[in-house]
UniProtKB/TrEMBL annotation:
Keyword Oxidoreductase included in the entry's annotation: yes
Protein name: Glycerol dehydrogenase
EC number: 1.1.1.6
Metal-binding keyword on record: yes
Protein source organism: Levilactobacillus parabrevis ATCC 53295
Length: 369
């Protein structure tokens, strides 16, 4: 058995961190690319750029077009080559992070991730989710190393709309559910070379879930008021560091495959975030593995209290035909998907049945109260 554990080289989290971020970035060189979309640039990008340049770094701002597609990666890579960039910085959300990691890998330069949201666990991982230009899931792309530096400004995270923190909580909630599934199945992790879980990776997944159940209420209240508290700091760490490293070093199962499977459909379901889709996927994962009613209820109550999708109606799929749901199921079990870490064969028919059962059980349990 070969086990492996991976993490970013350095993770730094604190209030108003962007004001003195240059001290952490400067060891990589004196000039690089700063990748951000227009919204992020207007909110914090311009100020961040000024802080970096005032501290002696030469920074080229690159507009991110919004999709982590092969075409966008190639476009930014060409700019980096022309500018002889010594490092690349992602400022923004998950797709900005994924694109920047891919560009850094192609340029063979250090990658710095500066998340502006705690909405997902992409900042710390050594993989990108690659989509087509129109948003259809294509593949997971893996790299030889995790980001060199992750800088998390708690003040920036607290300043974002609270719904993004809730999205991250939903994504993080799947971490231990899927990790425990992988552990029972003795399946492999997301790391290359088919490596097995370490105790450290599983412990981080468990700690992630523990923090979520202890501090989510306080953290959401703080984020709603845009203030940083110890509880919010715990949840930021759970969403970004513990979820990212825990998932990568412990493995994924059905919850994330279901999220990918939803790309088989068009329509309002895609108004929902990654975390919102994974929320239903977490419940689906529990149904597929035969969780008890009490265990299902625990996660259902947690998600329902946060207003996360727990039924097909919440996913805007209450009128979806069986044919459409089967399309989702077939894409969920395509070759290479992490649902095959469940420890038993999972067919499209199994997923179709679990989708219907999850919806019905969620609705029944919520009608009891």
């Amino acid at each position: 058995m070969i086990t492996a554990f991976a993490s970013p080289s350095t993770y730094v989290q604190g209030d108003r961190l962007l004001q003195h971020a240059a001290r952490y970035i400067a060891p990589f060189g004196n000039h690089g690319l700063l990748i951000a979309d227009d919204i992020v640039w207007e909110l914090v990008g311009g100020q961040f750029y000024q802080h970096l340049t005032a501290d002696g770094l030469k920074i080229e701002h690159i507009h991110f077009n919004g999709e982590s597609s092969p075409e966008e990666i190639a476009r930014i890579q060409a700019i980096g080559e022309a500018k002889d960039a010594k490092f690349v910085i992602a400022l923004g959300g998950g797709k900005t992070n994924d694109t920047t990691k891919a560009v850094g890998d192609q340029l063979h330069v250090p990658v710095v991730i500066v998340p502006t949201l705690a909405s997902n666990d992409s900042p710390c991982t050594r993989l990108s989710v690659i989509y087509s230009p129109n948003g259809e899931f294509l593949k997971y792309q893996f790299y030889d190393k995790n980001p060199d530096l992750v800088l998390v400004d708690s003040t920036v995270i607290a300043g974002a709309p609270v719904r993004f923190l809730v999205d991250g909580i939903a994504d993080a909630l799947s971490t231990n559910v899927e990790a425990q599934t992988v552990a029972r199945a003795r399946a492999t992790t997301l790391l290359p070379l088919q490596t097995d879980q370490t105790a450290a990776g599983l412990a981080l997944a468990e700690k992630c879930e523990s923090l979520l159940f202890k501090y989510t209420g306080q953290a959401v209240s703080a984020a709603a008021d845009h203030v940083v508290t110890p509880a919010l700091s715990h949840i930021i760490e759970a969403n970004i560091l513990l979820s990212g490293v825990g998932a990568e070093s412990s493995g994924l199962a059905a919850a994330h495959s279901f999220q990918n499977g939803l790309t088989a459909l068009s329509g309002d379901v895609h108004k929902l975030s990654h975390g919102q889709k994974v929320a239903f996927g977490t419940l689906l994962n529990l149904v597929l593995e035969g969780a008890t009613d009490a265990e299902f209820q625990r996660y259902l109550d947690f998600e329902a209290d946060l207003g996360l999708p727990t039924t097909l109606a919440d996913l805007y799929l209450d009128e979806a035909s069986d044919e459409d749901l089967m399309k989702v199921a077939k894409l969920t079990v395509q070759s290479g998907e992490t649902i095959h870490n469940m420890g038993f064969p999972v067919s499209a028919r199994d997923v179709f049945s679990a989708i219907k059962a999850t919806d019905e059980l969620s609705r029944q349990m919520q009608r009891q109260f």
